[in-house]
Amino acid sequence: MNEIRFRIAIDAQEYLRYYQGAVDSVQVVTTDGRRIQFPASALQKYVDRFGVNGSFRIVFDKDNKLVSIDRISN
């Protein structure tokens, strides 16, 4: 499995666009400089009243399918 780390900060107002379906994917730059894209719904469990903020670890399988996203720190 492939593990990638990234930091993200999406305020609550901006995340509302994702939640309402106006935007369906998130694009981030990883800590090693790669640009990746994944479904915004994968972050839904990390949304609080401030939006989504923190450092995360994303795991992909051998076919680059999303396995999990875990918050590492706020």
What's the total helix number?
Answer: 1
The domain tally reads 1
What string gives the helices and strands in order? EHEEEE
Specify the structural class: mainly beta
The residue ranges in which pLDDT falls below 50 over 5 or more consecutive positions are none
How far is the N terminus from the C terminus?
A: 24 Å
Percent range for β-strand residues: over 45%
List how many beta strands DSSP finds. Answer: 5
The biggest sheet amounts to: 3 strands, antiparallel
CATH topology, what is it called?
A: OB fold (Dihydrolipoamide Acetyltransferase, E2P)
Give an overview in words:
The N and C termini lie far apart (24 Å). The longest helix has 8 residues, at 12-19. Helix content is 11%, strand content 51%. It has one helix at residues 12-19; strands at 2-11, 25-29, 35-39, 51-60, 66-73. The model has no long low-confidence stretch (mean pLDDT 90). The chain has one domain: OB fold (Dihydrolipoamide Acetyltransferase, E2P) (Beta Barrel), CATH 2.40.50. The protein has one helix and five strands, in the order βαββββ. The strands form two sheets. The protein has a three-stranded antiparallel beta sheet with strand order 1-4-5. A two-stranded antiparallel sheet has the order 2-3. The chain is mainly beta.
